[in-house]
Backbone:
DNA sequence: CACAAGAATGATAACGGTGTCATTTCATGG
DNA sequence: CCATGAAATGACACCGTTATCATTCTTGTG
């Protein structure tokens, strides 16, 4: 029982390995990182000792000098929303092979919360930061500019991104959907989507919807604009609201397929015929869109691609290369099915 | 242009603040951490200067001495699965108020991958580790035991957890569901769920299903056991398989409501009556279960509660208190609706 | 065989905080 | 006016790793 000093026998450091291998700590450091300059036999020898001793490296120590954390921060409004969950999954897989870990924060659609998160992520020296959307507080933008951390903004497009922008043109997509409903002879088109405050995706979609109505000479009726969370309920409740208030509605544009599904299920329950009485257009082309009856007309975009592109751009920036492009529009298309 | 030494003017440290405030660095450290021993005026003064200089603390440096990272690692099989996404969200919210950040890893249902993740999380000195399930490689268990990091295992229950166990008794739940189907006079009961390899939740459910069949004197037919990912398609494809192979099936137990939804939609499409021809029981009581037609009979459990309990237990352990209990069964109940 | 050039390894000093214990300051009461 | 103890502040070392530059060891070559 020759405990070295105090009762803290656990932590094995590179010094312990160095002593056993009869080399200097720095050689151990190099060997464990797989440096080419260390002789292969030495490297192996050190690796074996490290294994024997159950060595666990201390990232914090390394970070302090090397300034590299191998962590990437991602801020999403909400993880439970499948669209963001999928994106996180893709990003995680994409950067994981290069040894990066995801540090995830939820902003709850609050720009102040986002600012807070950015602050702590900078403290943690994440090697890059991924944000959702282009709407940020001035303080957030200032911090990011000053820190010189690679930044990716996703899910909406911006002409002047902080770093790289990868997403969908939400405005155009909403225009396409609304025009489609109008082309089907609809005049009283409702919109159901997320709360636009602090959410540039929602803002852009609503704007596209309103502008298109106006262009077609249709009035915008505030009563037909419903917002809520991205859940089935939001769609179902909106339908109930329209019916119970006796509002005249002949089409619904739902800013998410989940919401649209709620709409469809509620219309089915109320035996309101689609598309005869009410036409429905969704957004996302989730798997469920083609399985539900009637099958949902929707705006499709390559959802997994966003995460993949983000990962690509991150790896490019982190390895010093230039990202493929400043702004990447992943595009969308209208999939017409039975609800319109 | 009096750059101090090299072209690295950016990083503001507590030393810079100390110089400006005419105090020692350690006082700055204490002040910024809100220590009571520093005079309030001094504290404020230092805080103001820190703000002026745009000081961003360096967690890594602090971690090195204090051994506290304020990070909690969570390993889930898959983030895109809404059940885990919700749990992550809850855990994040629960521990976020106390300043903890979530470091998330995806094991892809692989125990080896989990081992790897645990290793890097230990390297990063996360203050606690949350795992999904109780099935781990021996190396994983050894590392966790040695490291003395607080561990929570969630979503399944174990008599001998590594730390704290919070979840559902998957075996009992499957027994209940299967018994219910049998009580409805069904004899040819199919099971559709996740791949059981490396997944103790799936294993327990399948075991419960098989044991119950046996107890009722029913044969287990391997052809009626279908596994796949937790997506609509798995359910829909299984139904197509049963029909196309001409298999006699009068009930389906789906180990997830998403899968069950796929089953219902496919049965609807094929105009197979529920519950007359085929009874269906789901698992989860997702919102969609009561909206779909016919409404889905399912095993309900307080899904959000798991995340909340995990967060609670974590905070307790991290603040030195004992967790509420070693093993926490959040319970479940059978919700009978129209599909059985 | 001496010597240059590369290969392999090492010594030293940070990196930016914080734990520990020592010191100074200050009000209080005898 | 000084002893006393609490309040406030400071000095120093160290956390575990790595960047930087220096040193030693090989090896091939004229």
Residues:
């Amino acid at each position: 029982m020759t405990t070295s000093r105090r009762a803290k026998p656990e932590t094995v450091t590179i010094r312990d390995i160095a002593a056993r291998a009869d080399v200097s700590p720095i050689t151990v450091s190099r060997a464990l990182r797989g440096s080419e300059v260390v002789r292969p036999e030495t490297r192996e020898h050190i690796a074996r000792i490290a294994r024997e001793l159950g060595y666990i490296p201390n990232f914090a120590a390394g970070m302090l000098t090397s300034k590299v954390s191998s962590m990437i921060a991602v801020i999403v409004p909400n993880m439970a929303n499948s669209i963001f969950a999928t994106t996180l999954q893709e990003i995680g897989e994409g950067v994981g092979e290069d040894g990066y870990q995801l540090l995830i924060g939820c902003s709850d659609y609050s720009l102040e919360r986002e600012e807070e998160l950015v602050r702590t992520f900078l403290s943690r020296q994440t090697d890059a930061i991924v944000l959702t959307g282009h709407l940020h507080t001035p303080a957030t933008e200032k911090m990011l500019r000053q820190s010189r951390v690679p930044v990716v903004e996703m899910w909406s497009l911006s002409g002047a991104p902080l770093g790289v922008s990868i997403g969908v043109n939400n405005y155009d997509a909403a225009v396409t959907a609304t025009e489609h409903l109008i082309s089907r002879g609809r005049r009283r088109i409702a919109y159901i989507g997320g709360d636009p405050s602090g959410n540039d995706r929602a803002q852009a979609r609503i704007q596209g919807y309103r502008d298109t109505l106006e262009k077609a000479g249709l009035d915008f009726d505030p009563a037909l604009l419903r917002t809520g969370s991205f859940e089935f309920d939001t769609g179902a409740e909106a339908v109930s609201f329209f019916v119970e208030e006796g509002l005249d509605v002949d089409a619904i544009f739902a800013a998410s397929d989940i919401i649209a599904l709620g709409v469809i299920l509620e219309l089915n329950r109320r035996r309101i015929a689609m598309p005869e009485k009410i036409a429905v257009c969704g957004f996302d082309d989730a798997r469920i869109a083609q399985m539900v009856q009637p099958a949902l007309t929707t705006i499709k975009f390559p959802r997994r691609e966003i995460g993949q592109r983000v990962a690509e751009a991150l790896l490019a920036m982190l390895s010093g290369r230039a990202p493929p492009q400043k702004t990447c529009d992943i595009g969308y298309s209208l999939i017409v099915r039975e609800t319109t």
